[in-house]
């Protein structure tokens, strides 16, 4: 695994200088006290390159047969960012593509990577989750500005054997397009093209918070439970829950409904905020580095994102050292 977060720290007090908000208001509603934000000129691809380099170093090899980049903030609407990332890390000629499933993107990418490996089409896959949501947020919207941060996390997956440490034991995914308006950028795509007159509200990321909370908790609990079933685990046997770091209340509600104590639930959004597709790999790396996530731990992942999309995965944690770049 490899990770990369921007150097620039934006605290709640920083936001309160130009938004109608406060540190207490943000912490009470989200659990976030600060987030990392890219400086002008730094892109999603830049963070993805650093995280990928860290993952390849952690894996002890610069080789991969496929590069998957989960993101909804690509460097350009066209072309995809993954081929450029692959070229910049010395993997020119290797197939590479972007995957867009918003905050569920890393789990969708994990399932894709597993499919390529199990089919024999790839031996080693470099999976990256990277987003720079600060570039798509309305600067005057205190709700979204307070929630999101920027970052990237990457993982190298390889073919293995049943029961081997690091085994991906079960993955489940889902979606519901009827919920597409819960989390969206309304304008700028083919339905409302860039050439049209864009509204001040329509060009930025929007989210219906209360509805997102309800659907996120329900779908994340269902996905986590299903992933456990696929792995043949009981929920009581799970050592660590790594949920998408959307909101402290969501993480707490999911943990409670799964009957997992707080000490088994990873939390790093207080320092990083919601980093979208980078959220799960960054939380995994933090937990492993801190020693909370140890080799052999039965680890449960779950996420909910725009689309709407959701997913869950079960894996045993391997003996690896994440590299922060």
From TrEMBL:
Gene3D superfamilies tied to this protein: 3.40.47.10
Compartments in which it is found: Cytoplasm
Pathway: Lipid metabolism; fatty acid biosynthesis
InterPro entries registered for this protein in UniProt: ACP_syn_III_C, ACP_syn_III_N, FabH, Thiolase-like
UniProt KW keywords: Acyltransferase, Cytoplasm, Fatty acid biosynthesis, Fatty acid metabolism, Lipid biosynthesis, Lipid metabolism, Multifunctional enzyme, Transferase
UniProt GO cellular component terms: cytoplasm
UniProt keyword Signal present: no
Primary location group: cytoplasm
Record-level GO BP terms: fatty acid biosynthetic process; secondary metabolite biosynthetic process
Catalytic activity field: malonyl-[ACP] + acetyl-CoA + H(+) = 3-oxobutanoyl-[ACP] + CO2 + CoA
Function in brief: Catalyzes the condensation reaction of fatty acid synthesis by the addition to an acyl acceptor of two carbons from malonyl-ACP. Catalyzes the first condensation reaction which initiates fatty acid synthesis and may therefore play a role in governing the total rate of fatty acid production. Possesses both acetoacetyl-ACP synthase and acetyl transacylase activities. Its substrate specificity determines the biosynthesis of branched-chain and/or straight-chain of fatty acids.
Domain notes per entry: The last Arg residue of the ACP-binding site is essential for the weak association between ACP/AcpP and FabH.
HAMAP family assigned to the protein according to its UniProt record, in alphabetical order: FabH (MF_01815)
Subunit structure: Homodimer.
Family: Belongs to the thiolase-like superfamily. FabH family.
Name recorded for this polypeptide: Beta-ketoacyl-[acyl-carrier-protein] synthase III
């Amino acid at each position: 695994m490899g990770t990369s977060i921007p150097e620039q720290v934006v605290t709640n007090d920083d936001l309160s200088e130009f938004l109608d908000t406060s540190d207490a208001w943000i912490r009470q509603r989200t659990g976030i006290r600060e987030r990392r934000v890219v400086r002008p000129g730094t892109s999603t691809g830049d963070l993805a390159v650093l995280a990928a380099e860290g993952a390849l170093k952690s894996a002890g090899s610069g080789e991969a047969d496929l590069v998957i980049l989960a993101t909804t903030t690509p460097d350009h609407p066209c072309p995809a960012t993954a081929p450029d990332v692959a070229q910049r890390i010395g993997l020119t000629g290797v197939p590479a593509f972007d995957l867009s499933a918003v905050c569920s993107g890393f789990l969708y990418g994990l399932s894709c990577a597993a499919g390529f490996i199990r089919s024999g089409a790839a031996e080693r896959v470099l999976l990256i989750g990277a987003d720079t949501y600060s570039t798509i947020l309305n600067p005057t919207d205190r709700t979204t500005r307070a929630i999101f941060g920027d970052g990237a996390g990457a993982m190298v997956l390889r073919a293995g054997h049943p029961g081997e440490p690091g085994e991906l034991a079960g993955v489940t995914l889902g979606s519901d397009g009827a919920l597409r308006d819960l989390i969206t950028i309304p304008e700028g795509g083919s339905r409302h093209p860039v050439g049209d007159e864009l509204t001040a509200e329509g060009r930025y990321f929007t989210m219906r918070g209360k509805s997102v909370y309800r659907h996120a908790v329900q779908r994340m609990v269902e996905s986590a439970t299903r992933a456990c079933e696929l792995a043949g685990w009981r929920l009581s046997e799970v050592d660590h829950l790594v949920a998408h770091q959307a909101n402290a209340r969501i993480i707490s509600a999911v943990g409670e409904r799964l009957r997992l104590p707080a000490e088994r639930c990873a939390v790093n959004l207080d320092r990083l905020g919601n980093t979208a597709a980078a959220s799960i790999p960054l939380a995994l790396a933090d937990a492993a580095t801190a020693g909370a996530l140890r080799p052999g731990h039965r680890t449960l992942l779950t996420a909910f994102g725009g689309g709407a999309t959701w997913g869950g995965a079960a894996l045993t944690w391997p003996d690896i050292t994440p590299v922060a770049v």
